Amino acid sequence: MVNVHRRGQRIVTEDTGASAPKSDYSATLWAEKPEAPSRLMAVLLILLIKFILAVPHVIVLTFYWLAALIVAWIGYWAVLLTGNLPPGFHSFVLGYLRWNWRVNAWLCGIVDACPPFATEADYPADAGCALPEAGNRLLAAARILNPIIVILFIPHLIALWVMAIVATLVFLITPWAVIFTGSFPQFAFDILVGVARWQHRVTCFQLGLVEQYPPFSMSE
Questions:
Q1: Could you tell me if residue 178 is inside a domain?
Q2: Is 60 domain-assigned?
Q3: For residue 215, is it within any domain?
Q4: Domain span at 102
Q5: Residue 111 binned pLDDT confidence (cut-offs 50, 70, 90)
Q6: Using CB atoms within 10 A of its CB, is residue 58 exposed (0-12), middle (13-18) or buried (19+)?
Q7: Who contacts 160 (Cβ-Cβ below 8 Å, separation ≥6)?
Q8: Considering the entire predicted model, what is its pTM?
Q9: What integer best gives the mean pLDDT of the chain?
Q10: What are the pLDDT digits (tens) for 151-179?
Q11: Would residue 214 count as lying in a domain?
């Protein structure tokens, strides 16, 4: 289980797979770079077999995402009316993001071990987000009035669209690099994890898990 809280400007996590890096932002995402990635897994990715193997996760995550959206929406009202997001709501929505990242990390070849069917697990790829000490009623109202919050995301959406194109190209060439060199290129790891980290922070802000506007950065 991961317990996430803040000490000063640092996110602290307790007990879970990959070690959480220090971060100045309340939400972050990380993974351990594979020392000897599996060539077999790279072949399965090229042959699209990994996507077939991921179908059970996709089915579960689809329903989980719908439930997370409902819980997040109720959470907006809770913040608006009480000034605080219930910890259980925060954990439930974050659970989806953690599970989803593990599956994506496996599909990208960042991790070779099959992801568990669980929100909390000892796994070399994970994500975290500190529970806000106090909710922001103004942002809660903006999230309820969806078009308003979308306007705040436009700069991030443009940047992430460009980065997604780069990440897709890297995703396509990385399994070939693993097959021929036996290693996962550092630049590929940095881009794939960095873009996922950026997206995670934007999503956490959108869903009300964090009140601080996300940085324009892929770094920790």
A1: yes
A2: yes
A3: no
A4: 3-206
A5: very high
A6: exposed
A7: 195, 198, 199, 202
A8: 0.88
A9: 90
A10: 889 999 999 999 999 999 999 999 999 99
A11: no
